[in-house]
Structure formats: structure tokens, C-alpha cells
Design goal:
Blueprint: H1 2-9, H2 17-23, E1 35-38, H3 48-63, E2 67-70, H4 84-94, E3 101-102, H5 118-130, E4 134-137, H6 141-153, H7 172-180, E5 186-189, E6 198-203, E7 207-212, E8 219-221, H8 229-239, E9 244-248, H9 255-265, E10 271-275, E11 278-282, E12 285-288, H10 300-305, H11 309-320, H12 324-330, E13 351-352, H13 355-367, H14 371-385, H15 387-395, H16 397-404, H17 420-427, H18 432-435, H19 452-461, H20 468-481, E14 484-485, H21 488-493, E15 500-501, H22 502-514, H23 522-542
Helix pairs in contact: 1-5, 8-9, 11-13, 14-15, 14-16, 19-23, 22-23
Bound molecules: glutamic acid.
Length: 544
């Protein structure tokens, strides 16, 4: 009777599970190679949590010489948005997460778009029906919601199971009758579970988790013959020969269903690793990142904000493995690809995603780039987001590179740049066309505190030929001659004897030529501006 029922429901499905097994054979990979995947749904929004999962999955596959593939999970057509698949591809490309096979690339285990795999799912659903492990359910929405209401009222488990699963044992005639009437139906798995039993999920990140055995006759094919996530995931991960399912931990409660589906289908389940969600601290409270409240939740945010791809990747690596950060700080010449990720070092609970921390990581990243590389990367950003600054950058390439090169070497390289936007913010004063356009470039300074005659005197002595020592020596001499202490120590011993100290002269110079209280090494900046440049700024300052 089951065989007849299966034929009745799936007359057009001719392909068999055996043929599919043969078409998609077990991959010939080295022992220990991971086959992982990224399975986003094309909802039009890709968040940093998705990217985090893809990053982890791809890293684990790469480091084990395995396979990482992209499968688009578009079984929920109601949530699908135009252009969403391109958005996923662009994000992966932008963040340099490459995949070996998958949607838009192809591969021997495709198609990688679930909506193109209908026949495959139905072949397995047909087999389950044949074996009496699945059945058509003709219950109407009203009947189901009535059951749900009753269950809610009695505080019972919600769902179609046990005596609620009224269509479990329909006779062939009854099914025929329904079909004749064109009654819509879904296919449900026939759960062999026992409510009083438990199963254990051996989660590779969280450890063993005990969960109640599934008893629900979960829908596996919807009314349109399209599978649910549960069914599609189990069939696909089996046929695509996935070794490790790495996914968000919101799926932990569904695991018993997935285990049971694997058992019903006769598959060896993959290994599972559930990633803790990314969280945010706000007003002392921890909450999940939110699409509505947090712009940084969307992967689109980073590019526009000028946050470097490598900075984001480094932060994802830092979050993914607790020992990554220390390793990175200790290995100045290494990149992420040199690090070996492990499940053991992954956080088991909510993982704080902190923009401040990301900025600091980016600062370190930028501090390790050469001035030329930083220039090139930034130029790409400005070509896209601020063409007029890109033009200045191109015209003044040498000047900007000289500026970016200040304090780049040494034990404590400068860390004033966290984003590409900071390149402009931190360097604008070396470009006349930006500096003189500022509404009020001297906001940070009290005008009366600047000793203009002293600076004018200094300019008589200034030369770009001077070494840093000679430069400082000149200021020292000037200090002594003009009533300033040549050392801070001398000033502190008897402040009443002096107008100020040598440091104050440097600060006045800094303020007048840059408008800022903090800049990289002043000596270098003065040399970049040159004698004329400095004099022009002193004149400009006088007019303010
Ligand atoms: N399409 C699922 C999601 O976006 C994928 C979950 C999984 O990786 O299995 O949540």
C-alpha cells in the first residue's frame, strides 16, 4: 500500500535515491579534510553573523585542504527578494571569502540553488512514503490552528504529533478521495520518537547537549512540493557530502528533528557545530545585534564606513578563536591564512561584537602596512566614495605618502588610522586646498596663547636641510634666547622665571600649521609643508 501511495503522490519522480547516491559519490579527500558550506537564504539582507559563519566554515575547509561551497537556500519564496543572490555573492567577494564550488560557480554536487533541486527532494520524500516513514497530510490551516490553540491552553507541546497526527494512517482510498477533490496537502515525516526519551547532540563547539527526542511529524514538503529547511538541509548536506554543518545556534532546538530525518533516510549525520550569536552591550545590558538598531549588523555598512576588509576579517578571526588575537600580535609577518582554527577555541556563548575593538584591530592592521600600501587601499576607497579627495590624493601622492610614512617604523608605530576615512581626517592639514577651506581650522586652539613674534623669529632659522637633532637644537636655542626654558625639567623647577618651555614652542608651531593639538611627529610635518608652506600658515593664522 505504501508503494502505491508513493506512486500516487509522486508519479513523475523517476529518479531514485540509489541513482542520486551514485551521481553524488562520497568525495575523495584526504583524511581529516572538512567539507563545509555556507547556506544563506536570499532575503536581501546579509548580516555580520552570516559572514562570521561563512568565514569560520571557509577557514576550516581551507586549512584542512577540504571543500567549502555555497548553497543558496531559497525554499522560502515569500522571503525572497530581487537581487538578493547578487548581494550574497558581492559580500563574499568583498570580504574575500572564496568558495570552491557552489551557486554561480558550479561543481559536481550541484545544483546549488535549492529551488533547482525539487526533484531530488521529492525522490527522497517518495522513498520515505514508500517505506511508511512519511505521509500526506490534508489538514487545513484552520484545523491546525485549532489544535495549536488547544495545545497552548493546556500548555502542551505545540505541533502535529501523536493523536493530533490524524492523517498518519489514512487509507489509500481516503487519500485518493482527497486527491480527487484537489485538497491541498503537505508531506510529513512519521516521527518514531518517544517523548520520554532524550538524545545527545555532540556539538563541536558547545559540547554535549541533551535534548528531548523529536516526536513531531514535521512537514518535509510544503503544499507546493518545495521542501522545508529541515528536509532540504538533511538531504543536501548528505548528497553534497558535507562533513561539518556549521550554523547559528538558533538551530540547536531543531537538531532532534534533523537527527531523526537522517535516521529515517538512512544517512550518516554530519558533525554539527553551532555558533553563538554576536551580541552588543548597550546601557550595561547584553543583547543580540539587531537589524533595526545597529547599522554595523549589515555587511554593507563596513565598505561605506571605510573599514578595511582585512580589519573585519581579523576581527572575525579574533571572535572565532580566543587564541587568535595573541597569535596575531606576536606574529607580525603572518596573515590569517597561517593560523589554524579549532572548534575548541570557539566561544560557546554570546560573543560581544564591539566596534571599538574592531577599530583597534584596524589600527593595528593599518600600522603594519607600508605607506604606499595604505595609500593604494585608501585611494580605492576614495575613488568610490569621495572623488574630490581621490583627485587630491593623486595630485599630491608624494606628499601624502611622506605623511603616511611618519612614525611607521619602530616598536610603537603610529595608530591614528582606523578607517580609510581617517586618512583624510588625519592628513587634511597638509593639503592647502583642504586646510584653507576649513571653516575654522583653529577650533582646538586659544589664539592669544600663540606667541606669533616667536614663531616668526623661528622661521628665520628654519631649514628643511636640518636633521631632527639640528631642528630641535635650533628650537632649544630659540627658547633660551626668548625667555622659554630649554627643557621641561628646568621649567618645572622654577616656572616663574619663564614664559613657558621648549614643548610649548613646539605645540604653538603644531597648532598654527595644522590646527590640531595632536599630530604625528612635528619635525616631519614641518618638512613636508616646507618653509613657504609654514610661513603661509603663520600669515593665515594672524588673519584669523
Ligand atoms: N538558510 C539557513 C539560514 O540562513 C542556513 C542554516 C544552515 O547553515 O544550515 O539560517
Amino acid at each position: 500500500m505504501n508503494k502505491e501511495l508513493a506512486e500516487l503522490l509522486f508519479p513523475n519522480i523517476l529518479v531514485t535515491p540509489e541513482e542520486l547516491e551514485e551521481k553524488y559519490p562520497v568525495r575523495e579527500l584526504k583524511e581529516g579534510a572538512f567539507v563545509t558550506r555556507f547556506g544563506p537564504s536570499p532575503t536581501g539582507f546579509m548580516h555580520i553573523g552570516n559572514l562570521y559563519g561563512a568565514f569560520i566554515s571557509s577557514s576550516l575547509a581551507k586549512q584542512s585542504n577540504g571543500v567549502f561551497y555555497l548553497r543558496i537556500e531559497d525554499t522560502d519564496s515569500k522571503r525572497e527578494v530581487e537581487g538578493a543572490k547578487e548581494l550574497i555573492l558581492n559580500a563574499l567577494e568583498h570580504f574575500q571569502i572564496s568558495y570552491d564550488e557552489g551557486y554561480s560557480k558550479g561543481g559536481a554536487y550541484g545544483p546549488y540553488l535549492q529551488s533547482e533541486r525539487k526533484e531530488i527532494y521529492q525522490a527522497y520524500a517518495k522513498r520515505l512514503v514508500e517505506e511508511g516513514k512519511a505521509y500526506p497530510c490534508f489538514m487545513t490551516e484552520e484545523e491546525i490552528s485549532e489544535i495549536r490553540e488547544g495545545q497552548e491552553l493546556r500548555k502542551e507541546m505545540i505541533g502535529i504529533y501523536g493523536h493530533y497526527a490524524v492523517d498518519r494512517n489514512l487509507s489509500l482510498e481516503e487519500v485518493q478521495e482527497h486527491l480527487k477533490n484537489h485538497d491541498p496537502y503537505v508531506i510529513r515525516m512519521k516521527s518514531p520518537g518517544d517523548m520520554h526519551k532524550e538524545i545527545v547532540l555532540h556539538d563541536l563547539i558547545k559540547g554535549d547537549i541533551t535534548l528531548p527526542e523529536n516526536v513531531i511529524d514535521e512537514v518535509i514538503l510544503k503544499k507546493d512540493g518545495i521542501p522545508t529547511y529541515h528536509f532540504a538541509h538533511v538531504v543536501d548536506d548528505h548528497l553534497m557530502r558535507t562533513t561539518h554543518v556549521i550554523r547559528g545556534d538558533e538551530w540547536v532546538p531543531s537538531f532532534p528533528k534533523h537527527l531523526q530525518l537522517n535516521q529515517l533516510l538512512g544517512f550518516k549525520p554530519c558533525k554539527y557545530a553551532h555558533i553563538a550569536p554576536l551580541t552588543k552591550k548597550e546601557d550595561g545590558k547584553i543583547r543580540k545585534l539587531s537589524k533595526r538598531k545597529d547599522p554595523e549588523f549589515s555587511v554593507d555598512y563596513y565598505q561605506q564606513a571605510g573599514i578595511p576588509v582585512e580589519g573585519v576579517r581579523l576581527y572575525l578571526a579574533t571572535l572565532a578563536n580566543t587564541n587568535f588575537e595573541e597569535w596575531y600580535l606576536q606574529n607580525k609577518d603572518k596573515t590569517i591564512a597561517d593560523f589554524t582554527f579549532s572548534f575548541k577555541k570557539m566561544p560557546t556563548g554570546g560573543t560581544l561584537f564591539d566596534m571599538e575593538k574592531l577599530n583597534n584591530i584596524c589600527r593595528t592592521y593599518f600600522s603594519r602596512l607600508s605607506a604606499e600600501a595604505l595609500y593604494q587601499e585608501s585611494l580605492e576607497y576614495y575613488e568610490k566614495y569621495d572623488v574630490s579627495f581621490a583627485d587630491i590624493m593623486k595630485k599630491e601622492k608624494e606628499r601624502l605618502i611622506a605623511f603616511l610614512d611618519i612614525e611607521r617604523d619602530g616598536k610603537r608605530p603610529r595608530k591614528d588610522i582606523a578607517t580609510y576615512q581617517d586618512v583624510k581626517k588625519e592628513s587634511f592639514y597638509i593639503f592647502d586646498e583642504l586646510f584653507y577651506q576649513e571653516e575654522n581650522p583653529y577650533q582646538e586652539i586659544k589664539k592669544e596663547e600663540i606667541d606669533i613674534p616667536l614663531l616668526e623669529e623661528y622661521m628665520m632659522r628654519f631649514s628643511t636641510q636640518d636633521s631632527q637633532e639640528e631642528w630641535y637644537e635650533k628650537i632649544k636655542v630659540l627658547a633660551e634666547e626668548s625667555g622659554y626654558a630649554p627643557t621641561v625639567k628646568m621649567y618645572k623647577e622654577s616656572p616663574e622665571e619663564y614664559k613657558g618651555h621648549i614643548g610649548d614652542i613646539c605645540e604653538m608651531l603644531r597648532h598654527v600649521v595644522t590646527g590640531k593639538v595632536q599630530t604625528p611627529n612635528l619635525y616631519n610635518i614641518l618638512n613636508i609643508l616646507g618653509k613657504q608652506g609654514i610661513e603661509k600658515r603663520i600669515e593665515f593664522f594672524k588673519k584669523q
